[in-house]
Amino acid sequence: MNAAGHKTLKKNNSVKTSYKDFRDFIIKNDHPCVMAQTVFSMDKAEIHNYENFGSLETAKKILKDLKQYLENYDFSSNDFYTFIAAFPEEKNYSELKFEELLWKQLQKIHQVDKEKWDPEVSKDPESKDFSFSIAGKSFYIVGLHPNSSRKARQSPYPALTFNLHWQFEKLREMGAYQNVRDKIRDRDKDLQGSINPMLEDFGESSEARQYSGRKVGEEWKCPFLHGKNK
């Protein structure tokens, strides 16, 4: 096997390990998010491993992979798929550091993304209608890392989960959104003794406050700037 083939094999094995680690985190640990359980039980999760969390080079790779993910997405189906960007070599972030790198990475993705912002959502992170747009589609981002104060977000290693907003609208169309939401919140309360204080429905306040998983106060200001390079 040549060097290129060896690297590809090593990469594939690494992704398989990550998938197993996250599947165990969701399925074996009976994760409170029933949607995540459904996605993993039906093998509808797509995981990619990256290095250098927060970097421009990684932003380019994530954007490329997300574009491919969107091209393959079956919007005519009721099946839901999720995309996970995992950073298996980087484990020991504090909540503040993870939040900083999460927004730095999203800013870099925005910097290299040439598509227009999804017109269905706001580009202003202070707006109650804000959602992060990549390749013209809005995503709800869930930050996960081992040192999160929320047990449901204590993943094996840092990761960003990209969930299409279209999926939540689909659940509403199916009349299942409220039931799924309430079940997740009840299970999260059973796990930790309290509901995540940052969780609100889309349109109540900016979802940017929810991305990192850290409890933030009213004075918190999202570091993301639309149309700005940082």
Mean pLDDT: 86
Relative strand content:
5-15%
Rg calc: 17 Å
Distance between the termini: 42 Å
Beta strands, count: 5
Sum up the overall morphology in one term.
Answer: globular
Structure description:
The structure is a single chain. This protein has a domain at 50-75 and 85-210. It has 230 residues and is an alpha+beta fold. Helix 3 packs across helix 4 (95-112). The protein is built from 6 helices and 5 strands; from the N terminus they run H-H-E-H-E-H-E-E-E-H-H. The termini are far apart. The chain has helices at 3-28, 34-41, 56-72, 95-112, 165-173, 177-192; strands at 45-49, 82-86, 132-134, 137-144, 159-164. It is globular. Helix 3 (56-72) links the parallel strand 1 and strand 2 (82-86). Strands 1-2-5-4-3 form a 5-stranded mixed sheet. The model is unreliable at 3-10 (pLDDT under 50).
Q: What structural keywords apply?
A:
230 residues, alpha+beta, 5-stranded mixed sheet, globular, disordered N terminus
Strand and helix layout:
Elements: H1 3-28, H2 34-41, E1 45-49, H3 56-72, E2 82-86, H4 95-112, E3 132-134, E4 137-144, E5 159-164, H5 165-173, H6 177-192
Parallel strand pairs: 1-2
Antiparallel strand pairs: 2-5, 3-4, 4-5
Quick structural summary:
The protein is an alpha+beta fold and 230 residues long. Helices cover 41% and strands 12% of the residues.
